[in-house]
């Protein structure tokens, strides 16, 4: 089985190893050509790729993993956006493959998922993208409303391609409106206006830090997009502040709050099997929050208790790689410490996670997580090769001036009164 995002990760990983000189350029080109050819023969609907495919037949798959159960046919807007991003990278850096990449991109008309803003009915028509579309009963899933989550890649692509108006970016929530249900804390902030749109520049408070939260408090929600978009450079008064504070909060959660000795919390395969959405609860809007430990309590037969469970932090290496740009020394120290303490690194790269209390390491190596790791390495060692592959051209011309004026209410209270507390392993 594969997914549009896994295919995207393969494409940008191929570009990464080509830029790093790890494989012959001709070999990389053959891989890209074969992938584009396969995509051209895959089943689509409304121009978009389904959420899961059976690899041998390239048709949408009703099988999830090795468990036989029916899955409704679904077009995920964010998964299609990541695939579109990868195709845009190919067209930007490989002129000979540009026409083939464009042919695959052309039918991906993202306004299909978009509902224009209507001030008379901002809940039903919020100026946002739906999460996806069920092709069996022709219904849309809920909206992606939060700005600081990975679906903002949809917004960047659709705005850059002229498919939705630029104002859409400012109809996304910096913090969830207080009348939209329970959330982790009551946000503080102030209203500012951009492109004629009033924006509540809200933030959450965490250990002296004012931070624009994500949905669940995980690393990949906040920092997957900056693998390809230099948000902290283009928008220094918003993302330039928030990304660094978000990383620092994750570090403090692992080292100073939970005292795990390690940090880096993001959705990953569980050491015990399965998958879990790990994160720092205080950085998430979601009321029940993602947590740094397994949400389900261990049974007594496994020798655990709720108290034991709360101490068992699950750390994933890809979170440190996402943080590499914003806390280089801390990220490298964390990775070195993980390798020294646990059998988490081998010839396949980093295993997906480790329970730092029990020492149990996940046997899985996930394609998406390895793709994020490799993208971060390529950017660090090859002059932001993947950022340039994606951003150069339309993205920079239309997104840079769009996000540059914004000013978050994020900040570090401690820095105003005393030197920053440097965190090391």
* CATH C-level label: Mainly Alpha
What's the number of structural domains? 1
Q: Roughly what percent helix?
A: 25-40%
Q: What is the SS-derived class?
A: alpha+beta
Q: What's the CATH H-level homologous superfamily?
A: Glycoside hydrolase 144 (GH144)
Cα end-to-end separation: 39 Å
DSSP E strands, number: 20
Strand order of the largest sheet: 11-12-13-20
Number of helices: 15
Going by CATH, the architecture would be Alpha/alpha barrel
Main beta sheet strand tally, sense and closure: 4 strands, antiparallel
Percentage of β-strand residues: 5-15%
C-alpha geometry: globular
Here the CATH topology equals Glycosyltransferase
Poorly predicted tracts of residues: 63-70, 296-302, 306-310, 417-425
Radius of gyration: 21 Å
Any overview of this molecule?
By secondary structure, the protein is of the alpha+beta class. The protein has one domain (109-415): Glycosyltransferase, CATH 1.50.10. The protein contains 15 helices and 20 strands. It has helices spanning 4-20, 25-40, 77-93, 98-105, 152-160, 219-223, 231-234, 239-257, 306-311, 317-323, 328-341, 367-381, 385-391, 394-403, 413-417; strands at residues 44-45, 48-49, 53-54, 59-60, 74-76, 114-117, 126-130, 132-134, 139-140, 143-144, 188-194, 197-206, 209-211, 268-269, 275-276, 314-315, 345-346, 349-350, 354-355, 411-412. The strands form 8 sheets. Strands 11-12-13-20 form a 4-stranded antiparallel beta sheet. Strands 5-8-9 form a 3-stranded antiparallel beta sheet. It has a 3-stranded antiparallel beta sheet with strand order 6-7-10, with no helix packed on it. Mean pLDDT is 91; it is low at 63-70, 296-302, 306-310 and 417-425.
